[in-house]
Amino acid sequence: MAGGANSEPLLDVRDLTTRFFTEEGRVNAVESVDFTVHDGEVFGVVGESGSGKSVTALSVMDLVESPGEIVAGEVWYRDADLAGEMADDHPKAVDGDAVDLRRVPSEVRRSLRGSSVSMIFQDPMSSFNPSITVGEQIAEAVEVQRRASANPRSTRSRTQGFGLGSMVASTMESHERAIELLDEVGIPDPEARAEEYPHQYSGGMLQRAMVAQALAGEPDLLIADEPTTALDVTIEAQILNLLADLQDDLGMAIVLITHDLGVIARTCDRLGVMYAGEIVEHGSLADVFDSPVHPYTQGLLGSIPDLDDPAPRLNPIEGNVPSLLAAEMDDRCYFADRCPKAMEECLDKPPSFAVDGTGVAGRTDPTGTSATGTDGRKADTTAHTAKCYLADHEYGQARALPEGYFGGSDGGTDT
Ligand code: SF4
């Protein structure tokens, strides 16, 4: 899939931080996450369960519910018309053609959902109302978009918005469009299927219907959270091909969240690897897959079976994802107790992003644009970077932590 890497980003997420305030204590679910997505690009977010991928997506969409709270960060979305609307009343929320969605009224954010930015979820069954036909629910999404388009660019229309969730009656026109959408996502006999209820669809069909619903607003950006997790490999391939075709046809950008590196390899232009609520490595698909820097990324890639050279045993990453309870998080690299290359400095403090020129000390930043260091922590979100000391100096056996330093490990992980 092609990406427009030289254009201004469509989405620019900066320092996004989300916490959950539970009875057990504060959970640092998403910690200072940065990434960009450009027009027509597919950006993958990969990591184990519990690494913060889904909460990151929900935070971008402003769908985090209590006891969760987005406590910091900026979500810049490029929309010249919206920037023009917001410039007078919310000047700090505007920078050129981009708008910081964290600083505009919540009604404005809501009005963008489904129209400018859509999301598809892991479990389509829980995303559809079981008592309303699939066609009617998609028609409602079409109607929301149609009404918003009728008053497209006025603050009044946005703040009185027609966001999804405000029940609107569909018209014959929107119903016909819903059938078209079902047809476009490959649902056979879409007219008849439109009259059926969610429980009458198979998992793959309902996933396709959810894609159709997400496309109803003709979004510029689609966030797909584990869209194929519950599907068998054949249906998974169909859904991924469908997303690729739609992305090519419509020029949408996609943020694809998955725990499956195979899905990333087949679909993404760039990716971020998440661990313990942070993006620990990001770069182009070739950068990260061919020259992984972070030992966690190396571990994920090393645990994929190679069909051309099947090994007798896979190499899982030992240990488990850490607790994200603030009280239980040590002030060190959060991967240290699972890292086969952990060194003394890894215990000092969490490493900040560093540029991987060629991965060791003395190497230069090939882009000449990236910043590094704990003080100026803002990373260039298009460069290949890793949040690991090995990004700027070599592994030193002499500084390696002694075996058993963390008291051993208790198992592997799935990827
Ligand atoms: S900073 Fe140290 S412990 Fe953390 S991933 Fe890098 S080498 Fe391993």
Count of β-strands: 13
Terminal Cα separation, in Å?
Answer: 24 Å
Low-confidence stretches: 2-6, 152-166, 357-379, 409-415
Rounded to an integer, what's the Rg over CA atoms?
Answer: 22 Å
- Ligands bound to this protein structure: iron/sulfur cluster
Globally, the shape reads: globular
User: What's the story with the biggest beta sheet?
Assistant: 8 strands, mixed
What is the string of SSEs from the N terminus onward? EEEHEHEEHEHHHHHHEHEHEEHHEE
Helix content: 25-40%
Structural category is alpha/beta
Short description:
This protein has 415 residues and is an alpha/beta fold. The chain is 28% helix and 19% strand. It has 13 helices and 13 strands.
Give structural attributes.
alpha/beta; 8-stranded mixed sheet; 5-stranded antiparallel sheet; 13 helices; 13 strands; disordered N terminus; disordered C terminus; binds iron/sulfur cluster
